[in-house]
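Meet the record:
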Amino acid sequence: MLIVLSVIIVGIAVAVGITMFNAQATSANRQAILSDMNQFAAQALAFYKTPSNYGGGDNSWTSDPLNVGLFLGYNYNETTDQITTENGIYTFSVSADVLTITGVGNETGNDGSNSVQATMQITGSTHSINTTINN
């Protein structure tokens, strides 16, 4: 009877440990995605403020995320408007004066089925940054 009880307690401890590990991995990936996006946002605002004769946007996103992506550097994919890092994939889109960056992580998010995801909107004229954690 004591052996059976010991096996049950060890099984519960292992299950709790796995759950805690997965939760930490999700949280770490979410924080890494947000960190990458903050870095992209700072560089994107630098692009926005830089005069066009220096390769910047001259107070415009130029309605083409390709220009912003090439300014950021990294491994920018021109056909998909995406940057891929070890933390996830970031997609760029432009609408009027707003640059939107959507980051999708490598870990499963809080819903248990979709990846960690966050969206950041950068308004050029006001230099404001709004971040939403989607999962």
In short: Strands lie at 76-77, 82-84, 88-95, 98-108, 115-123, 128-133. The longest strand covers residues 98-108. The helical segments are 2-49, 65-72.
